[in-house]
Specification:
Helix content is 72%, strand content 0%. α2 packs antiparallel against α3. By secondary structure, it is an all-alpha fold. It has 10 helices and no strands. Keywords: Sigma factor, Transcription, Transcription regulation. This is Sigma-70 family RNA polymerase sigma factor. Belongs to the sigma-70 factor family. ECF subfamily.
Length: 200
Amino acid sequence: MLFSFKDDSKLIEQLMIGNENAYTYLVTNYHKPLYIYALSLTNDNASAQDIIQNVFLRTWKFRKRLNPDFSIKNFLYKTTYNEFINDYHKTKAISLLERTYIEALNESIDENNSELIKKKIDFVNDGISNLPPKCKKTFLLSKKEGLTNIEISEYLDISIKTVEGHISKAYSILRKKCGGKLSNILIILFNNKQLKSKYY
């Protein structure tokens, strides 16, 4: 019966013996959160859908290798991450900046925080939205748009020193509110653009 699948070990045991109801339960309960996670990695709907489809297909194909003693949720998130990395390697040449982005993702996964990444991103976004207006605008031009301090200075018609002050203030405020690993979350949030700034 479906209710018995709520227990990880029973769910995995049933998957291992090829119970299609167990597989249906798995897809029904994990498709949406895994898609949201994949979308946070790819920023592309089609790619996220492809990744999740591959995750479930591989899980079924290699179901006999599953371990009933492990968390199915952690397994699925880790597999989603691995699918993303495989796809990334296939479609893009890995530059130094891209490698830094991937390493930030990998560190988050290795710390077993994969399911918390979206929550952390939301928390950082909330912190950014509450920055003082001028500080917020300068910070986003730097991290989201990837402008240099000189470009921001010219665009906002303010001194470079003022730009530096706003960015430093933003980092100080966000670190107090968001704690450690802020840089990793910013890399994930804004992909590689923020690495152009000397304030990474």
